[in-house]
Amino acid sequence: TNRYDTESNAYLLYGANFTYSPIRNIRFSAGYRNNYLLDEYTSDRVLLNFDLNVDYGNHNVSVNTSHGLVRNTVGKTDFYINARYSYRIAAPIRKMSDLHSLSGQLRSDNPRDVAGVILTINGQSVISDEYGRFVVNDLPEGLHYMYLDPGTLGIGLVTAVETPLEVVIGPSEDNKVVIPVVRGGSISGKVNQVLDKRDVANGEKPSLKVVKVSQGNRELLTYTDEQGNYSFKNLLPGQWTVRVVNAETADGKYKIDRNNVSVNVNAGRETKADFEIVARVRKIKFSNQSIDVKINK
Q: How high is the mean pLDDT of the chain?
């Protein structure tokens, strides 16, 4: 299924990524994928790519070729080749011994999913390159928090670690950070409140409910709509707990059949969790015993 229609279709998606480094300064990579889902319609969809990157001192040569589907089209393909030469000039006017650099990488099954992501640390913003790599300079020693703009990630992608990410900058020049990126899943369902006949006769309607999902220290809240439907998107795959926060009324008139439901979220899939709130059954007890009632005048 996909977010654009309600039909259910069968897909067979397959591909492979290959990376080879004969020596430290030379890297060759290639990738293939047969097709993409409609959810990825608005992004670049590479079917076949070859990349070569060579570093020698301050010199860098990169060659990139790609054959893929043009974004916002269904069957239109495009091919491009790009060659780039860079020379790094490192001539500092004055060395600041108390400032250091941080190198990092957003790591995903498809490196192009993490290209162009905006990250911010200590007031500085950087953008990841085509392989998800980034470098931040002039950082003082100590604890910093790195923020990631989720809107710059690919559709349906989430970080496998909590953000903002705590980063400790030390005196060493080897300050590195790796942020795994995975495809998220979703949880949806319905909170159905069955009103008793008296409330229906009085014209009452089911109240909006608050639904909470949690995984470790992560907690997300949302309201149901008027029909009781709710949804959580882009959740990290794994075990989540779903709870209806205001399930039972303060007067004890209504109760929920089950709560704190544990569900398993899978990447790229939707998991259902439904709840039902019903009126408590009030029982009248009859007795055959006689009761003496005395009335004092």
A: 83
| pLDDT tens sequence across 206-239 | 778 889 999 888 888 998 988 889 999 888 888 9
Residue type, 247: A
CA distance readout (Å), 26 to 19, 58, 207, 257:
11, 14, 62, 61
Q: Is the pLDDT of residue 2 over 60?
A: no
Is the link from the previous residue into 140 a cis peptide, with omega within 30 of 0? no
Report the alpha-carbon distance of residue 209 to residue 246 in Å, rounded: 6
In whole angstroms, what is the distance from residue 15 CA to residue 141 CA?
43
Take residue 177 and report the two structure tokens written for it: 């950070």
Tokens of 39: 């959810």
Q: What is the pTM assigned to this prediction?
A: 0.52
Nearest to 241 by CA among 263, 221, 257: 263
| Pairing verdict, β 185-194 and 270-272 | parallel
Model confidence over 54-63: pLDDT tens digits?
988 788 899 9
DSSP 89-140: ----SS--TTEEEEEEEEE-SSGGGGTT-EEEETTEEEE--TTSEEEEEEEE
By DSSP bridging, strand 238-244 and strand 254-256 are unpaired
- Tokens 């014209």, located at residue: 203
Maximum alpha-carbon separation in the chain: 112
Residue 248 CA to residue 67 CA, distance in Å, equals: 56
Query: Phi and psi (nearest 5°) for 213?
Result: -115, 140
Q: DSSP assignment of 50-91, as one string?
A: EEEEEEETTEEEEEEEEEEEPTT-SS-EEEEEEEEEEE----
| d(C-alpha 274, C-alpha 189), whole Å | 5
